[in-house]
Design a protein that fits this description.
By secondary structure, this protein is of the alpha/beta class. It is about 30% helix and about 25% strand. Strand 9 and strand 10 form a beta hairpin. Helix 7 crosses helix 8 and helix 7 packs across helix 11. It binds 5'-O-[(S)-butoxy(hydroxy)phosphoryl]adenosine.
Length: about 650
C-alpha cells in the first residue's frame, strides 16, 4: 500500500512466539470461556448488556444501542449515578474494606475504607454545592496523586458536575488553556506535592493560570506540603476547612442519564489546540467496569495497582472508575519509582500484597535497566496478572517483565486503547487467548477493528496499514456519539474501510497477523508519543517558533534507550543567527512553558533550513530517520537535499 510505505508501516517483523496462561490463572479467571467471542458476534449489540449488568441502575435503559439522527446512544433511557456505583453500593458488603490505599513520596501511608470514602466524598460534595457548583458545571482539577483527587472526582460525579482533570505536571499555560477551553469557573488544586523528597509547588502555577482565564475562578486548595501555608484570597477556600464546615453532611446523588457527561479530559490532537474528549456516565462506566473485570481480571477482594497518574485517561479509567465500580482496593502512589531506592515499587507490591499490577513500557524499560536485583529482593508472589499500556512494548522488555516481575506465572495483558476509546479495546483475554510478546492481541469480544490501506481496503495479514474501529462500543466518547467527528472522513490519512458505513479512525498504524492479533506500529498523524504520553507536534512547534530569533521548527521522536522514544526539536534560526546556547535554552523553556517538563526535548538541533519537498512541506519522516539513526532513502524529491548532511552531523555531534 502506497500510503503505508510512505509512513514506513510495512517494516515491522513481529516475533512468532506464543505463551499460554498458567492453569492456576485460568481456573480462577473472571472470563475463562472462549465462547464469549462468538456470543458477542451473534448477539451484537445486545451482548453488551453484560457490561451494564455490572452496574446498579436507578432506571433501566430501554435499549442497548440506539441510533438517532446520525448519532449513537448507549443504554438510552437508563439513569444512574457513577459515585453510587463506585462507593455507596459497596457499603452493605464491604464498608470496612479498603477502597483507596495511598503511599506518599515521603513514606507516608493512608487508606480509606469504603465507609470512610463515602463520608469524605459526601462532605466534599456538600462543600462543592455550598460553593455554588451545580449539575452540569465543569470543575477543573489540577492535583497530584493524593487521595483528595479521586475523592473530588467522585464528589463531582455525585452532584452531576463533570470534572476536567489536568495533569499536575502540566504548565500554568497548559492549565489556563484547558480551563478557558472548558469554560470552567471552579478549580480544585493543591499547595504542592513531593517528588524525590523535594517539595514541588502547584499553587503558584494555579494562580497564574486562574489569572489568565476570562471568568472569575473559585478555588479549593488542598494542603499537602508541610510548613507552607499560603494566605487565601477572596475566592479561595481550604479543603480541610470546607470539610470541617460540612462534617457529617450527606448529599443525595443526582440521577444522571446514561448519555450525560461524566467528565471531560483534554488530550493532544493534530491542531495547536488541546483536543476535548468527553466521556458518558452509562457507557463509559459500564465499559471501564467490564474491561476491568474481563481484561484486568479484577475481583473485589483484590489489591490492585495501576502506576499511572490520574491526570491521564489511564488513571481515570483504571485507578478510579473501573476498579472502584468493581469494589476492589485500588492503590495510589505519589512520586517516583526510584525514590528513595530503585526497589520502591516492589517494596509496595510486597507490603500491600498487590494481586494485579498495570504499568507502562517506559517504566518496564527503566526497571530492566536498573537490574533484576531490585525486584529479586522482594516477595512478589501475590501477583496474579500483569498489564502494560501506552506504547508498543518490545519483546525483550515484555520477557523481562514476564520473568522478573511475574516469575513466569502471571499472564501479561498488552492493552491498546486511547483517551478517545475510554477503555481497553485490543488485548488478549488473559485466560482465553495465548500471549504473543510484541503483539497487543485480538480486538476484545464485541470490538470490531480492522487494518486497512489508503483506499480503505483491508490489507493482507502481516501487512501494515491504518487501524480503524468499524463498530460502536459503550466507551465511545460523546464527540463520536453525537455525529461523525473523528469518524470516516476525519483524516485524509486514513479513510474508512471500503463498504463500511461508519468507522472511527484511530490514527494508529498497525498490522494484523493470521490469528487476528494486532501489533501497533505507532501514530500516523501529527501526534507523537513520548514515554507513553501524547503530544501534538503543532502545539510544540508553534510554541518554538514564537521565540524571538527562531524561524522554523519541526518536532519528531527518535529512539532513546531509557524512554523508548525521545523528542527531537529541529530548528532554524532567523538571519542565520549564531546558534547560541541561549537560543537552545529558549527552545527548551518554551516547550516547558506551554506543556511542562515531561515534553522537554532530548536534543535541539540547529539547521540552516529544514528539509522540504518541492511543494514546501517539511519532511518530518526524514528528520525522524535521522533521529533514529536509520538509513536515509532517496532524497531526490527534496527541494534542498544539501541540508541533510549538515543536519546529520549536527545530530551526531550532539
Ligand atoms: C496512543 C493513545 C490508553 C491509555 C494511554 C495512552 C499508543 C496505547 C498502546 C499499546 C502500542 C499503544 C497508541 C495510541 N498506545 N496503548 N498497548 N501498544 N501503542 O492514551 O494518550 O490517548 O495515547 O497510545 O499510539 O494511539 P493516549
Amino acid at each position: 500500500m502506497d500510503d503505508g510505505n510512505d509512513a514506513g508501516l510495512d517494516t515491522y517483523q513481529p516475533v512468532d512466539e506464543r505463551l499460554s496462561p498458567p492453569k492456576s490463572f485460568v481456573e480462577q479467571a473472571n472470563v475463562a470461556d472462549g465462547a464469549i467471542y462468538a456470543d458477542f458476534d451473534e448477539n451484537w449489540p445486545d451482548a453488551w448488556e453484560r457490561a451494564a449488568d455490572l452496574l446498579d441502575w436507578d432506571e433501566d435503559y430501554d435499549q442497548v444501542l440506539t441510533e438517532r439522527d446520525g448519532g449513537y446512544r448507549w443504554f438510552d433511557g437508563g439513569q444512574l449515578n457513577a459515585c453510587v456505583n463506585c462507593v455507596d453500593r459497596h457499603l452493605p458488603e464491604r464498608k470496612n474494606q479498603r477502597a483507596l490505599v495511598w503511599e506518599g513520596q515521603l513514606g507516608e501511608r493512608r487508606s480509606y475504607t469504603y465507609l470512610e470514602l463515602y463520608r469524605e466524598v459526601n462532605e466534599f460534595a456538600a462543600a462543592l454545592r455550598g460553593l455554588g457548583v451545580g449539575e452540569g458545571d465543569l470543575v477543573t482539577m489540577y492535583m497530584p496523586m493524593i487521595p483528595e483527587l479521586p475523592i473530588a472526582m467522585l464528589a463531582c460525579a455525585r452532584i452531576g458536575a463533570p470534572h476536567n482533570v489536568v495533569f499536575a505536571g502540566f504548565s500554568a499555560d497548559a492549565l489556563g488553556t484547558r480551563m478557558d477551553a472548558a469554560d470552567s469557573e471552579y478549580l480544585i488544586t493543591c499547595d504542592g506535592y513531593y517528588r524525590r523528597g523535594d517539595a514541588v509547588t502547584l499553587k503558584n502555577k494555579a494562580d497564574t493560570a486562574s489569572a489568565s482565564v476570562d471568568a472569575p475562578v473559585t478555588t479549593v486548595l488542598v494542603d499537602r506540603l508541610d510548613g507552607y501555608d499560603p494566605t487565601l484570597g477572596a475566592r479561595e477556600h481550604s479543603y480541610s476547612s470546607l470539610l470541617a464546615d460540612h462534617g457529617t453532611e450527606r448529599v443525595s446523588p443526582v440521577e444522571r442519564a446514561a448519555t450525560d457527561d461524566l467528565f471531560r479530559i483534554y488530550t493532544s490532537g493534530t491542531t495547536g489546540e488541546p483536543k476535548a474528549v468527553t466521556h458518558t456516565t452509562g457507557g463509559y462506566l459500564s465499559y471501564t467496569a467490564w474491561t476491568s473485570h474481563a481484561v484486568l481480571d479484577i475481583k473485589p477482594e483484590d489489591t490492585y495497582w495501576c502506576s499511572a497518574d490520574i491526570g491521564w485517561i489511564t488513571g481515570h479509567s483504571y485507578i478510579v472508575y473501573g476498579p472502584l465500580a468493581l469494589g476492589t482496593t485500588t492503590v495510589l502512589y505519589e512520586g517516583a519509582p526510584d525514590h528513595p531506592e530503585k526497589n520502591r515499587l516492589w517494596e509496595i507490591v510486597e507490603r500491600q500484597a498487590v494481586d494485579v499490577f498495570y504499568t507502562a513500557p517506559t517504566a518496564i524499560r527503566a526497571f530492566m535497566k536498573w537490574g533484576s536485583e531490585y525486584p529479586d529482593k522482594h516477595d512478589l508472589s501475590s501477583l496474579r496478572l500483569l498489564g502494560t499500556v501506552g506504547e508498543p512494548i518490545n519483546p525483550r522488555a515484555w520477557k523481562w517483565y514476564y520473568e522478573h516481575i511475574g516469575n513466569e506465572s502471571c499472564p501479561i495483558v498488552d492493552t491498546w486503547w486511547q483517551t478517545e476509546t475510554g477503555g481497553i479495546m485490543v488485548s488478549t483475554l488473559p485466560a482465553v487467548r495465548d500471549m504473543k510478546p510484541g503483539a497487543a492481541g485480538p480486538p476484545l469480544p464485541g470490538i470490531s477493528a480492522r487494518v486497512v490501506d489508503g483506499n480503505g481496503s483491508e490489507v493482507d495479514a502481516g501487512e501494515g496499514g491504518y487501524l480503524v474501529v468499524d463498530q460502536q462500543w459503550p466507551g465511545m466518547p460523546q464527540e463520536l456519539c453525537e455525529g461523525d467527528a473523528w469518524a470516516a472522513t476525519a483524516s485524509e490519512n486514513a479513510p474508512s474501510p471500503a463498504g463500511v458505513e461508519w468507522a472511527y479512525l484511530t490514527e494508529d498504524g498497525a498490522l494484523m497477523d493470521d490469528d487476528g492479533y494486532i501489533t501497533i506500529l505507532g501514530r500516523v498523524d501529527d501526534v507523537i508519543n513520548v514515554s507513553g504520553h501524547r503530544f501534538g507536534t503543532m502545539e510544540l512547534e508553534s510554541a518554538i517558533v514564537d521565540i524571538d530569533g527562531i524561524a522554523e521548527a519541526a518536532v519528531v521522536t527518535g529512539t532513546d534507550d531509557a524512554h523508548g522514544k525521545a523528542l527531537y526539536a529541529y530548528v532554524s534560526s532567523e538571519d542565520d543567527r549564531e546558534n547560541t546556547e541561549e537560543l537552545r535554552q529558549a527552545v527548551i523553556d518554551a516547550v516547558e512553558e506551554t506543556v511542562g517538563p515531561i515534553a522537554r526535548p532530548k536534543a535541539v538541533v540547529f539547521t540552516p533550513d529544514l528539509p522540504k519537498t518541492q511543494s514546501g512541506k517539511i519532511m518530518r519522516r526524514l528528520l525522524e530517520d535521522i533521529a533514529n539513526d536509520e538509513e536515509l532513502g532517496d532524497l531526490s524529491a527534496l527541494r534542498n537535499p544539501e541540508v541533510v548532511g549538515e543536519i546529520e552531523s549536527a545530530v551526531r555531534s550532539d
